[in-house]
Amino acid sequence: MIAETGHYALVLALALAILQSTLPLWGARSRDAALMGLASPLAVAQFLLVAISFAALTHAYVTSDFSLVNVVENSHSAKPLIYKISGVWGNHEGSLLLWILILVLFGALVAVFGRNLPARLKADVLAVQAMISTAFLLFVLITSNPFARVNPAPLEGQDLNPLLQDPGLAIHPPLLYLGYVGFSMAFSFAVAALIEGKVDAAWARWVRPWTLMAWCFLTLGIAMGSYWAYYELGWGGFWFWDPVENASLMPWLSGTALLHSAVVMEKREALKIWTILLALLTFALSLLGTFLVRSGVLTSVHAFAVDPARGVAILMILTVFVGGSLTLYALRAPVLRQGGIFAPVSREGALVLNNIFLTAACAAVFIGTLYPLALEAATGEKISVGAPFFNATFGPIMLPVLLIMPFAPLLAWKRGDALRAAQGVTVALGVAIVATAMVAGFVRGGPTLAPVGVGLALFAIVGAFAEIAERTKIFRIGLGDSVRRARGLPTSTWGGAFSHAGLGVTLLGVVAASAWSSEAVVALRPGETVKLAGFELTFEKIEQRPGANYRSAVAELTVREGGAVVATVEPGRRFYLARKMDLSESSIVTFGVSQLYASMAEARTDGATGLRLQYKPLVVLIWLGAVVMAFGGALSLADRRLRVGAPRKAARRAPVMQPAE
Amino acid sequence: MTALWVTVAAMTGAAIFVVLASLARHRAAGGPAEAADAAVYRDQLDEISRDQARGLIDEREAEGARTEVARRLIGASDREEAAAGPATRADRRRRLAAAAALVGVPLIALGGYGALGRPEMPDLPLAARLNANPERQRVVDLVSRVEAALANNPDDARGWTVVAPIYLRLGRAEDAADAYANIIRIEGSSPDREADLGEALYAAADGVVTAEARAAFERSVKSDKPSIKGALYLSRAAEQDGDPAAALGHLRPLFEKAAPDAPYLSALKGELERLADVPPLPMPTVTSSDERKTPEERMAMVRAMVDGLGDRLAGQGGDIGEWLRLVKARAALGDNDKAKATLAAAREKFAGDDRATARLEALGLGLGLEGRGA
């Protein structure tokens, strides 16, 4: 009964979504508060129903109810509980349900916390959100129903793909989806603005927190996915330029651009049309990302043919939302009045440059990802676009972004002073040059350009705080005064600085881990020792260890540095019984921010154990940088001015001249 | 099931209530859209003052910014006044919305669920299913105990021998195949073990004799005491390859060697008859007048039909399916002599056709019209 209740709740949610996508819109056109007022309660009800549905599916997974096809195909009674739960979204149907759950959660958040939104904007926004959820609910119910039943029910399930039986699955997709779906808010706001024919600073102020939140989650989601791939896939790579990864990188790039252009719009009412377009494109790329990953288009173009209904539905949703919103854009964009003008050398100018390069980078990734698919679809020829393409395009495009990044915050709005800005970054430039020289002089090996990469990363990290140094007049006035000034700075300034620094930290990790990692691929017998990057690793033994739904062989290696034991690594291989899959389980030891990475090769016949041992200096910085970026985003989000509309509070505050707090 | 419908009704009712309650709460009036915009601009003015107080912008900049924001604020205020239009036809709109909720929501939800849902199916959580069937629970417990023992000592042939057939019965055919492979690894090959392995592989491939399974079956019939099961499956493999003659070739020696009271004889006959692949007899249309007939009269009617088919085939000829059908029908009616004659005639007629000949021979053997005891 619980499963069927969940199924009905999902259909009922569809009925409410249809009402929510029509009545409030009509209300907004006819200025009818009663109809507009329907949007909020409907959004909340829709969220509750989808939540019931999701809970019902989770219940079926936890209790191993194999009368649901979806559970049979992706679960197993012997699987540990956490993977039974995370298995709910470890498959096409369930992950779409999670996608919808997050979508309607955001709708409900707007309904509950958006009390200060103008009624018409709110009605329009929620109606557009409901259109998206209508499309997805239809898609799920018709082509990918997680509640499809099977009678008689099999006694055992086929288990979840062992690659996904990892804590990563519990965290990574929800984070990523919070990001993807968060951009749907920017999309809904943009479409609502186009319908209203009115975009202004207030609009930007309401959109920015959603974009910022989505961006933070997406940043963390991508980093989490990268780290997961790093330790799970067993060969120590952290970014593969795999289409699935690119699918999440594209909305991140355009979302980053959107975040910056929204600042310009909020402060200066400039770049209106461009900001709207970015909001539309970012969500379009999120949709594309979701579908590329979930439809199976990526593994092969022919996956479309496997389930034509699914493929066609996907194309229809993409066409309707991307095509529809762009048509609306073409019709309504001319109505929007352009705002403030600015000189080329100004904060706006720098942000425009940022936007140009970020969208160009995004376009490069887009071409690299989709061109092979298009080519195969058109001619049947298979080509593979890999790291060389992206290194040759994405890298050079991102270079100016990193170079301009420290300057931009130092430029004034409207008309900036390039010379003063340059003076502001002298310290950062000095640090970068010294670091480059030292690395080039003292570190052996690695590509010639690697020291420059380190310099660039440090330039970005130190330069990120140039604005704060400038505004607190640090070292130019007393330390106490500087601290007071620092406290007075808006948190968004700190947020921006941390985000920019985070990018530099990530870059530093990427450069170091790519340029100076060392590797040994060996076959060892118990008692043998191998040397790697100053460590001595002794192969102690190999033993069998049974698991809940797998058998595993684990090798034990003692790590010594200068004769003293510093760690033990235990790489292994697991054989998952239900899926008959053999997987490497790597073992990682962290020293500071560097890591020793050990993985076991497939079984050999000669009694020795094949091992791949790697030392990756500073590799942790890659993900730490992303965490710092997201932390910066969260700081920005905490800035009072970004709280979703605060007219009432503001009105109370207005008469008092606020001192710097 | 009743509980489900009560829940469904409650959820639907709640959903409709949400809409109706919200409609009732609101008075049709212009929105506060413009008022909120103005509030944001006031907030911006406030921020400019703060920035100035902190020394982030100088007075001239602050003044410029204030002018600009003030200009926008005035614009927003103007729009606010203009926006308060009359609320005409609001009642009609609300009635329509209420109708949409009252009719549209149940229509979409119940209609959609009616098309997609399986309200008659209860939840089937595994634990409950196992509890409901203690026999099964014992089996599952036993299997997990043996599995645990085998994990530590994978060379325990007895353990594998215990679980292998249970796996097959539980539908875990691949595990069963693994288990049989282990038995062979530990105890060496034997015709029966190879046949069991082949059977598990066959089941794991959903009833297709894979190359791997075929290899196992072939090993099972190689020795001087060939496995009967292996031969049966080899015949099925040949049949799946579309080669009934080869399939028959596997079955014929079994049939000839079998003792008259051999327990597998009936299974063998069934297999032979299946191999003949006789098209099903067309059901005679029963009219109301037929219903009143006595069993004898009906029998006569069937006989007449069969004879009619026989005459037609003898006169105009027919395809192999019809001949097979005729033979089978005559045997079923107890006319073994006629059936034999028909079979002989058919074999003569299809002499050049290997497939047809094999099917006829299989039918003859299966029905006991030819070969031993015929």
TrEMBL record, chain A:
Subcellular localization(s) per the UniProt record: Cell inner membrane
Any one of the GO CC terms: plasma membrane
Recorded topology in the membrane: Multi-pass membrane protein
Keyword Cell division: no
NCBIfam families: nrfE, PRK10369.1
Function: Required for the biogenesis of c-type cytochromes. Possible subunit of a heme lyase.
Record flagged with keyword Chloroplast: no
Record key words, sorted: Cell inner membrane, Cell membrane, Cytochrome c-type biogenesis, Membrane, Transmembrane, Transmembrane helix
Gene Ontology biological-process entries: cytochrome complex assembly
Segments traversing the membrane: 6-26, 38-62, 96-113, 125-144, 175-195, 207-229, 249-266, 273-292, 312-331, 352-374, 394-413, 425-443, 449-469, 494-516, 618-638
Entry-linked InterPro entries: CcmF_C, Cyt_c_assembly, Cyt_c_biogenesis, Cyt_c_biogenesis_CcmF
Highest taxon of source: Bacteria
Source species: Hansschlegelia plantiphila
GO molecular function: heme binding; heme transmembrane transporter activity
Protein name: Cytochrome c-type biogenesis protein CycK
Ranges where the Cytochrome c assembly protein domain occurs: 89-295
Domain Cytochrome c-type biogenesis protein CcmF C-terminal, chain residue ranges per copy: 315-640
TrEMBL record, chain B:
Compartment list: Cell envelope
Gene Ontology biological-process annotations: cytochrome complex assembly
Keyword Transmembrane helix set for record: yes
InterPro entries (UniProt xref): C-type_cytochrome_biogenesis, Cyt_c_biogenesis_CcmI, TPR-like_helical_dom_sf
Positions of transmembrane segments: 6-24, 96-116
GO CC annotations, alphabetized: cell envelope; plasma membrane
Lineage top rank: taxon: Bacteria
Alphabetical UniProt keywords: Cytochrome c-type biogenesis, Membrane, Transmembrane, Transmembrane helix
Protein name: C-type cytochrome biogenesis protein CcmI
Organism of derivation: Hansschlegelia plantiphila
The organism's taxonomic lineage, starting at the top: Bacteria, Pseudomonadati, Pseudomonadota, Alphaproteobacteria, Hyphomicrobiales
